[in-house]
Amino acid sequence: MKTLFKTTVTMLAFASLISCKNETKDNTSTSDSNTETTKIVGLSFSDDNVGEQFQHYIHVKTALVNSDAKEAQSGAKMLMENTDDTALKGLLSKISETSDIEIQRTVFSDVTAKMTAIVDASISSGEVYQQFCPMAFNNQGGYWLSTEEEIRNPYFGDKMLKCGKVTETIK
Q1: Using one digit for the tens of pLDDT, what is the confidence trace for 9-34?
Q2: Dihedral of CA 34/39/44/47: which sign?
Q3: pTM of the entire predicted model
Q4: Which of 31, 43, 74, 105 has the maximum number of C-beta atoms within 10 A of its C-beta?
Q5: For the residues of 123-165, what is the DSSP string, one character each?
Q6: Alpha-carbon distance 143 to 87, whole Å?
């Protein structure tokens, strides 16, 4: 069943890349989420659990981009269930226990620091983009990870969706 699912996802990802290559991206949450999921297909990690963790991390990031506190809570709970890192679990617990999007975004910055180290140590193929918004947190700045170069800012959502830049490509 898992193999059939992976094969189906890979085929759908390939078809969407071919059919949408020259189209303008739609800014709906479904499009952003599908784009991230499509890009995850090309990533491999030396630890399969890290792949699952990263997928849940992207879920939380996408929810924050879409200013969806409830979905961020859901993604944080899923990531929490897939990690043994006590400090990371503590951070995710804060996201999952609040519906205040600004608190979630602040804690997400710390989650990103943890996930960056985990991803960097385990990525075996593909690319993950470390992105940075200099205006986040009262101009102190904030990082996040993405599977695509295009900026989708989780710290401001649609208020400043494209504020930021790629600072590193993790390979």
Answers
A1: 333 333 333 222 222 333 333 334 44
A2: negative
A3: 0.77
A4: 105
A5: EEES-EEEEEETTHHHHT-EEEEESSSS---TTTGGGSTT--E
A6: 18
